[in-house]
Amino acid sequence: MSRSVQYSTSPLLASRTPVWRSKFIVAAIALGFIGLSCRAAYVQVFNNKFFQHQGEVRFARTLELPAGRGRILDRNGLILASSVPTPSVWAIPEDVERDPTRLAQLAKLLDLPVAELNKKLADEDKTFVWLKRQIDDATASQVQTLGIKGVYLRKEYRRHYPEGEALAHVVGFTNVEDKGQEGVELAFNDELEGQVGSRRVIKDRLGRVVEDVGETALPVDGSDLQLSIDSKVQFFAYQKLKSAVLDNKAKAGSVVVLNAVTGEVLAVANYPSYTPDKRRNLTGEQLRNRALTDTFEPGSVMKPFTIGLALETGRVTPSTIIQTAPGSVNITGSTIHDAHPHGALTVEQVIQVSSNVGTTKIAMQMQPREMWETFSQAGFGQKPQIAFPGAVSGRLRPYKTWRPIEQATMSYGYGLSASLFQMARSYTVFSHDGQIIPVTLLKSDAPANGVQVFSAQTAAKVRKMLQMAAGPGGTGPKAQTMGYSVGGKSGTAYKQVGKGYGSDGNRKYRGWFVGMAPIDKPQIIVAVMIDEPSANLHFGGDVAAPVFSETVQQTLRIMGMQPDISVKPQIVTQAVEESF
Q1: pTM of structure
Q2: Sheet harboring 509-517: ordered strands across?
Q3: Options 88, 254, 300, 419, the catalytic residue
Q4: Average pLDDT, stretch 184-191?
Q5: Is 300 a catalytic residue?
Q6: In this structure, are 194 and 292 located in the same domain?
Q7: CATH code for the domain of 515
Q8: Which residue segment(s) compose the domain that 101 sits in?
Q9: 370 in Cβ contact with 310 (< 8 Å)
C-alpha cells in the first residue's frame, strides 16, 4: 500500500514558487529552440555549400583522365617515341597488412630496401602512396600474387623509344609524369601531351568507385608529331660517328645532315650517347646535344666565307694570284703562318690547300664591317631559329672592337665561335645559290626561301673551290665518295688549354669537315666534328672527312639520288696538312 504525499504537510512543496523562475525556465527553453532553429537555417539554407563540400571531400573524388601522349614519327612514318601501358604499385598505408615476411618479398620485387618500403608505409593517415611506378608486367603479376591487403596496381603510361641511343639527343625523353624533359619531347611538349579530362565519382574507403556523379570531361589526346629526321640516315650517321670516335680515341663527336633544298634536318647524332629508356647514372657528357650546345672556334671552315666576300665585292677572281711566300705574314707585330710554304697561289688554290697567309692577305683588303655583316648574315653570333632546347648563339664580337690581327685571325676561323649545327646551316649559302635558308625539325617538302648573302654566281665559284679542297691536292681528299661528286672544307682548330692553346706536348684539337653533294646541284649538307682525337691523326681531313664520305654516300642512296659520276674516287692516304 503506497503512501500518498501530503503537500500540505511538506514544507518544501508547500512553499510558493516565484513566478519569475518559471518564466525564466520557459524563456530559456524558447531561446534554445530559437537558437537551434537559426543554426539549422544557417547550416541548411544560408551556408550549406561549405558543409556540403566538407561532406563531399570525405567520399567524393575527381579522377584525372589522362590524355594519350602523341607519338613522334620520322619523315617516313616510323615510330620514334610512343606511349605504352605499364602497371604501377600503390597502397593505402592504414590498410596494409604488416606481415614482415611478405613485405620483405614485396620490397625485393620492387627493388626497394625494406627500410624505404616501411618509410613509405609509415604514415597511416595517408590514403594513397606510390610504392613503385612503371614496373614491368612480370613484376606486376608477382606483386598481385602476393595478395597483400592494402597494396594495389594502377595502369599508367611509359614512353618507349625504339631507336635507342642513335636518336636519343633528338627525341629526348619524358619523366615519370609523362612531361618532356629533353629534346623534341621537351620542345613540343604542349602539342604532344594533349589535354587531360576529369571524372567526378564517389569512392569507398578502399578506393573503389561506387558511383559517378556530375559530368565527365573527356580527355583530348596529344597530336602526333612528324619530324624531318630520317631514322635510317640517323642510324647510319650515328654508327659511323661512333666508330670514328672510338678509332681515333677521341673524347666525343657530332654529325649533322641537312636537306640542302628544303632546310630539313635529316640527322643530328652525338657520341657518347645514352638509351632514353634506361637513364640511371647519366652524366652531362652523355645528355648534352653537342651539335647544338657546344661552341668552338671553327678554324679553316670559315675561309670560304672570307673568299666568297672578296669574290662578291670584285676584289679578286678565282684566278687572282696571291703571293703567300715565305709562308708567313706579319700583322701589327704578330706573325701568321702556313703549315708549309706554298709560294704564289690562285684564290682557288688558297682554299684548296687552306692557306692562312693567302686568306689573311685577301681579308686585309676588306673593311671589318663588311666581314662582320657577311658572317652575321650567314648566322654566326645568332641563335639558330629551330625549336630545340639548348641551341646556342656562339660568339661574334662587334666589328668596331676588332684589331687588325683579330680581323686577320677571324678570316680563317679564330676569334669567333660557332656550333656544328650553325656551321652546317651556314653552308646553305653555297649550296642554295647564295641564300642562307631556315632549317626545321619538322617534315616539310617545300623548297625553302632564304636571305641572299652572295650571288648565285659567287656561290657556284665557291662550290668549285670546295670541290678542289675535297679532291686530290686538297686538305680533304678522304671526303671523296663513290659515285657522287662532293665539295667541302676541312678544319682543324686548337682547343683552349687554360688561357692559351697549350704547348706542343699538350695541345688538343677539334677536327671538322663541312661539305655538300652532289656538287653541281647539292641535295644534302653534312657537317662532322671529332673532339680531341688522340690516336695518330688529328687533322679534320683525316678524322672527320671519312665520316662525311660514308654518310653522304648512304644518305644519297636512301634519298634515291642517282650517281652523278662514274669514275672511282682516287684513293688518298694522306691529306695536305692544314694551317692552323
Answers
A1: 0.82
A2: 265-271, 252-259, 524-531, 509-517, 487-494
A3: 300
A4: 92
A5: yes
A6: no
A7: 3.40.710.10
A8: 63-226
A9: no
